[in-house]
Design a protein that fits this description.
The protein is of the alpha/beta class. Helix content is about 45%, strand content about 15%. Helix 6 crosses helix 11.
Amino acid sequence: LGADAGRLRDVSRRIRFAVDQARAFADATGGTLREYLDWATLQGTEGARVVETVLPETDDDAVRILTIHGAKGLEFPVTVVSGMTTEVRRRRSGVQLLFPHDSDTYALRVSARVTTEEFDRYEPIDEQMDFHEKLRLLYVALTRARDHLVVSVHRTTRVPDPNDRQKWTHAELLWAAACEAPHWEAFTARGPATPIGFDPPAPSAPFPPWDVWRARRDAALASGVRSRVRSATAIAAEAAERAARADPGLAKEPRDLELPPWNKGRYGTAVGRAVHAVLQTVDLVTGAGVDDTAAAQAAAEGVIGRERDIAALARSALASATVREAVEHEFRREMYVATALGDRTLEGYVDLVYRSPTGLVVVDYKTDAWRDQGDLDAKVARYRLQGASYALALSEATGEPVARCVFLFLGTERAEARDVTDLARAVEEVRAILEASA
């Protein structure tokens, strides 16, 4: 249900929060399930306060807006520190109270004319402590960046007093510190910059005419709504859909009444994922651990009872001539590959890749059921652009030629290997599809 909600990460975060709360309840009380449910119901009532820790999602493709204190301990690929140009204005409330560390008395300020002697003496120390706290917070903010740090050092034409840095903005402090650092080269519109001689900002370009601006905006919006990443499986699925629209007879799948239960519908998809996971994990040379891994993956995919079928499908792959040849050369399993083609990125996960004397060989496992050789030919035609997409991405990313693309159809008794016979032509078709989408 959570995966169907659209915002999977948000749902996952809530589930993790519920799990963490349940563990905390169990650690604190050792209560029963019924007691926990009663407690959870109480937490959902109006007026209840639940301490919720916001867990960082480092792979979430979104902008997070945090305070400096909220960002403590976290890192982000790109960090933009804002508010650097805010002028320092010391807040003075009607009544100020200080407690000197070397005295058991207090320092009080009621107004400009009503102060204690200790307050006038310790106020500079308090201001100095505020300044050091300001520097500390600036350091915390700037060190949240892992790869790129973006700050604004925009400054006014005012030249700050070099003897009173407590009144400098964060931008002025950062610029001066950078200019004073060794091996630093700073340039402005007027040439090399000096530590204190702040140059005024360069004049901004005038706004473009309305028609020009609107055309640029429309082009940016049109470009933004298009997906810039295309997967190999999506290209193959779209090609099959286009073929079905051109010839409706191609869309008619054979009825699966005669297929075994583990190879039907969603059940077959779960078994296929389990088989791929087994082949990703076990030793391809010896096949050790196939049964144990198959049992674990059957439980993970919710197809308990199909352990023997999963193990048999995996063994058919291990016994095939294709996998036997792969283990004799340098090979990689479940390898992610991506490459930029124009303004699009082509990506995919390749089940098995090995380097033969003639070039790279792409192997893609298929757990589809088949009845005869004609059925296999139809499936190869359906998947050929998927294999070609893998070949194109690999050749572009590595600079090495892809000699073959093999679909290994797995069965409980044997595996059938089928090559994409027109691989070069299929690769050019994928290029044309990407260019057309651009």
